[in-house]
Amino acid sequence: MNRIHTNRHRTFGTVLALGLGLVALAGAGAFAEDQIGGAPGDWLSRYSSARSVGMGGAFVAVADEPLGSIWNPACLAQMFRNTLHFETARLFEETSINSMSFATPERRVLPGFGLTVVSFGSGEFQRTNELNDPLGTFREGETAYILSASKSVTRSVAIGANFKIIRQSIDEFQASGAGGDIGILANVLPSVVIGASLLNVGGPSLTLRETTEDYPVEFRGGFSVRFLSGRALFSTEIDHRAGYETRIHAGSEFWAHPIMGLRVGYYDSYVSGGVSFALTPDMRFDYGMSDQVLGLTHRVGISYRFGGFFASSQASPPVFSPLGTQSVTKFNLTARTKADAATWNLSIVDKSNQEVRRFSGKGSPPAHIMWDGKDESGLSLADGAYRYQLVVVDAEGRLTQGRERTVEIMTSGPQGDVPVVVSEQY
């Protein structure tokens, strides 16, 4: 336990230093955790997905999936595939929160659109009369319906907006209210994104019997930095609600393997973490956990991507021998970009991350390319596994990156026999 507390303090010091400039812009210091309990709309303001909770909630400049519209509606501009996403979380005392979200990326003329439904349900509460006699039980429930749209206004700036309806029920009493959110994303550098959003603009305002609750206006701002060729990500964020506290978030994500991503984050006073598994190139499983005062909470989610914009490359066969009957491998290439394709390249790297061969050209990539296992100078490469990836740049400067895959050169004996390998095709 002492080691955990020590790590928390060290992490807080790092996050405080990184977020100091943003906190100054917010014009308010961080308040204690117990000063915000019971704020109207707290259930939605503090909502975290399995991926975002693993990053400590620092998601306003990262959000590139349907649920990201809760943080920043401009996030849909970062999406390239149609995506369907489901989440569920079991909290404390039989409380649960579930969500469903679907979004499509922007087209050349049309903006990106998304629809998100988040539902919060409590456990049972005891109902009593004036004499404190038990009269059964009741539940509380709240649901948010969020319609999102976003569009790139320049090559590096995108804007977005949400229209949301909130419905609340306590026992036999019900209330509804509507409001909006606005957001912006800016790619200030190829690997740096700044994001900001203003939530609860003009509502919602809900009245149960004679009590009215107004969701406070909330500002979120932050930045994210990608490195290690896009495999790693660091993000930080501040949230400030009018009349309440300023919260600091920070987190990181690292794809240690093309099918596995790891996350760690810090959120005000607790640490969090998570993991993702790419079950297939189109389906991903997310898990996130956070360590809070009342104990651990767990979230799981699953997403499915289809259609949209993509780049794909597949070596056939995936294992070949320049000395055998399978002396070359064929890379099958396909791509669909938001704007017309300007350039493309297929890079092949060795285990030391050194590029050994590059195929490139203008416009859309060809249907296939043959590779004989030689480097740029025409020399035969050593046996082993090599990674390859197709990247296409469209006319507006956007990168569409394919999944990184592996091809292997294997020779055995004087004739270069190659074992038969069955590879799942995507």
Describe the structure.
This protein is mainly beta and 426 residues long. The chain folds into two domains: 2-306, Beta Barrel (Porin), CATH 2.40.160.60; 310-409, Immunoglobulin-like (Sandwich). It is built from three helices and 27 strands. The protein has helices at residues 2-26, 42-45, 50-54, and strands at residues 82-90, 96-104, 112-121, 125-128, 134-138, 140-152, 157-170, 173-189, 192-201, 205-208, 211-214, 218-227, 232-241, 246-257, 260-267, 270-280, 283-292, 295-306, 310-316, 319-320, 329-336, 341-349, 355-362, 368-371, 384-394, 399-401, 405-409. The chain has a 14-stranded antiparallel barrel with strand order 1-2-3-6-7-8-9-12-13-14-15-16-17-18. A hairpin with a 2-residue loop joins strand 7 (157-170) and strand 8. It is elongated.
Helix content: under 10%
Radius of gyration: 25 Å
Percent of residues in β-strands: over 45%
* CATH-assigned homologous superfamily of the largest domain: Outer membrane protein transport protein (OMPP1/FadL/TodX)
What is the terminal-to-terminal distance?
46 Å
Q: Major β-sheet, in short?
A: 14 strands, antiparallel, barrel
The third-level CATH topology of the largest domain is Porin
Query: In what order do the strands lie side by side in the largest sheet?
Result: 1-2-3-6-7-8-9-12-13-14-15-16-17-18
